[in-house]
Amino acid sequence: MHASVEGRITYHLKNRSTPTPYSAATQHEFLTAAGSLTLSPARLALWLCQDRIYAAHAYPRFIGLLISKIPFDGPAVEEELNRETLALLTICLEGIIREVAFFEGVAKEWGLNINGWMERKATRDYTAEMARVAAVGSLEEGLVFLWAMEQVYLDAWKYVKSLFPPQSDSEDNTANAIRQLTNNWTTPEFEEFVERVEDLANTHFARRHHGPSYSAVRAMESIWARVVELEQMFWPEDGEDTHLSSRAF
């Protein structure tokens, strides 16, 4: 097994079953409702509020800690990879700043109130795990975690887009918001970004583990399974919006 994953750990992970099925994270009922444009405005607003916590606070700290793990006194042969890593992680920070502004703009344009919601336990669990991995894990573990988050997110919104009915002039504000959000997260540019993160994670894993390493592979399998689990829990269940805010929609 280990020789086959030595150079492309992500291929191994994507073809491995997890305790929480991958489809539970990428084809959750929330996403099915979004794709059929039947998602309620309150439930969408609740999710956007949680995603803003993730994007505006947890994600920048996560990326910053990964940057701090880039070696600055290693062999000269690794300097090119170090610069490539810094460049891509900088792109992550620049992108998340735009992302927060984007979905705040979408919420304002389509009348979704994303303020006043309580933080969900799933959001706290996700951001806590991000902080833990970035603080105590290795750089390659952090990069695999980063890739896993982005890969699940991409596949989830591609699933939403695959369910869209033909566009109609009679669609309400929530449907318009869903289409705008989905189109943003299914672009060729975002898919290319995810591929770049994947390539970088694989390069770091191969560079550090020159031969078969059972413990290293098991560590990456654990990260992959945990991200799938966290992503599945991050989508709000039907009815959560009724007790996490007193606002009326």
Describe the structure.
The longest helix has 31 residues, at 79-109. Helices cover 71% and strands 0% of the residues. It is an all-alpha fold. Helix 6 (79-109) runs antiparallel to helix 10 and helix 8 (139-163) packs across helix 11. The relative contact order is 0.21. The radius of gyration is 19 Å and the shape is globular.
Query: H/E element string?
Result: HHHHHHHHHHH
**N- and C-termini, Cα separation:** 52 Å
Low-confidence stretches: none
Percent of residues in β-strands: under 5%
What class would the helix/strand composition place it in? mainly alpha
Can you give me a brief rundown of this structure?
This protein is mainly alpha-helical and 249 residues long.
List keywords for this structure.
249 residues, single chain, globular, mainly alpha
Helices and strands in order:
Layout lengths: L1 H4 L3 H6 L7 H5 L2 H7 L5 H28 L10 H31 L11 H16 L2 H25 L9 H12 L3 H21 L5 H21 L15
